[in-house]
Amino acid sequence: MTRPDDTRPESTRPTTRLVMKFGGTSMGDLERIRRAARIVAAEAAAGKQIAVVVSAMAGKTNELVAWTDGAGRPGPGIELSDDEYDVVVASGEQVTAGLLALTLRNMGLNARSWMGWQIPILTDEAHGRARIEDVPGEVLGSAIDTGQIAVVPGFQGVSAGGRITTLGRGGSDTSAVAVAAALGCACDIYTDVDGVYTTDPRIESRARRLEKVSYEEMLEMASLGAKVLQTRSVELAMAKRVPVRVLSSFIEPDENGRLPEHAGTLICDEEEIVEKRIVSGVAMSRDEARITLLGLSDRVEAPADVFTRLAEAAVNVDMIVQSQSRTPGTVNLTFTTGRRDAARAAELMRSAQSELGFEEIRVDEDVAKVSVVGVGMRSHAGVAQTMFRALADKGVKFQAISTSEIKISVLIDAAYAELAVRALHSAYGLEAV
Q: Model's pTM, two decimal places?
């Protein structure tokens, strides 16, 4: 995924290449595929050399996964066939790539589908959750520079052994950014929303679309519950300095075949944002679980023992709080993890209870994480005070806190999550952004 050493803003880069990505809702049926084709055609008419990355039709991957489940479990002593699983679930994107290329050809455009192994999109051997290692851009770049529209299935790649791999849920976003990095160009991601908002408009009707968001802010928002982009895609965009624009796929070119200008949200370097907001957005995640070890031995090594076991089991931990226990010589240790990891983490702790030395374990999944994010926090005081005052005024108690340079997160009862989001959105004046 090497790209030219070019740190200039997107508008001054001397390239007409463009990567466009359409998500599952944008590929949901033939009419939506035709709409996507019209959007692609408008960019081609504007003189762009285009590669298009597509997801499977909405719901199709779930169906394919269910089919692999229906094939049964391996017998005793037989390993899981993750490589064949990838062959099945990667087929959804292959279908939409072929359909979009066919639609573009029927419109008189020069289009061709390119499978992940043909480009190639090179990954490691971790089937079902592979990570991209390299995307040589020479062959694909030469094709689009001749005027061909290359349609690429997202979510899939190829291992060093020549086997199809898949990148995990949301992997098509990462595919698109990787291809853009290889081609040295920007990436437009078309989805079912028209940009990145100050918070979820379904929770706060006064949420506003942001014109620009820094990579760092988007990475925090994505990891904290905003579902506009997959976290790995933002990490890659930041590392390779790929400008990413989030746009709605439910638009149509005008009568002159032009797309709306200044639409969507640009995700870019912080230096390209002239006026830095103190807080840019409020994020909320219900995919949280709180685990508390009561009466944990107050040994210096005890927390290290706990988190070493969790790390070895690939359980991600976020918030951590240690407090005094009623029993002398012990403490209470609380941490949070994703709901899907909670049962595994709890079982891991129970199996090591005697070694770790705690009295009781409690698991609470009726919690939510609410966060405020903004690069302006680096240079402004009082952000935390505003947050805690706004929550206190609404009677919302927090159970744990975590911070970084540009975000503050609190863990609260799930019943108060939406109330907290609206209160914080108002406290920071985000309706006026």
A: 0.84
